[in-house]
Amino acid sequence: MRIPSDDKIRALHEKYAPTREAFALVYTHCEIVCLIAEGLTDRTGLDVALVRAGALLHDLGVYRLYDTAGELDHSQYVRHGVLGHELLAKEGFAEALCRFCSCHTGVGISRDDVRRQGLPLPVADYCAESGEERLVMYADKSHTKTNPPSFLTADSYALNIGRFGADKAAAFASMREEFGEPDLAALVDTYGHALR
After folding, report:
1. What CATH number should be reported for the domain holding residue 127?
2. pLDDT at 142
3. Which of 170, 110, 178 is nearest to 138 (CA)?
4. Does residue 65 sit within a domain?
5. What is d(CA 191, CA 63) in angstroms, rounded to the nearest whole number?
6. Secondary element (H or E) of residue 23
7. Residue 1 included in any domain
8. Residue 148 within a domain
9. Angle at Cα 161 formed by Cα 62 and Cα 148, nearest 5°?
10. What is the mean pLDDT of residues 104-117?
11. pLDDT tens, position by position, 22-50
12. Is residue 21 part of a domain?
């Protein structure tokens, strides 16, 4: 599998971003997730180049949720992973890279979740399988694209994910144990986003 360069990934973001503001928000988030994930790879033995590409690509589908006025459709946000998967497949990317888009939301969305919650997704499992996918999913939980963007401690995310059920809380706890606590202090200083 060919892993795209950072320049090619940035060009994809620029191609699909409907506005400069959308690009700045989404691409900066992907860069931050990449830095968090890379900071956790030392003890994992995972493919660092694949983790890097997956982190930089994982939210590409968010751009498809912006309307012509530049407003994000929050009601359809759960679809951004599937939309990103479709974009990357259309661009000719390998399935292993496409999956970083469709398999990073929350701590995974099962076909049972789709049915039970009536999610606007094709009925399927959207769960991280490889170590690289799990690491990007986990790193993604440490930063939000809210207005304003912010960093989240693992404790903060653990409190939030519990509302989706004990199984989701256990899945996050497992990733936390596997990958450890991200060191967010330098990133907070660099990007100036609050730590919650």
Report:
1. 1.10.3210
2. 98
3. 178
4. yes
5. 22
6. helix 20-39
7. no
8. yes
9. 45
10. 96
11. 999 999 999 999 999 999 997 778 999 99
12. yes
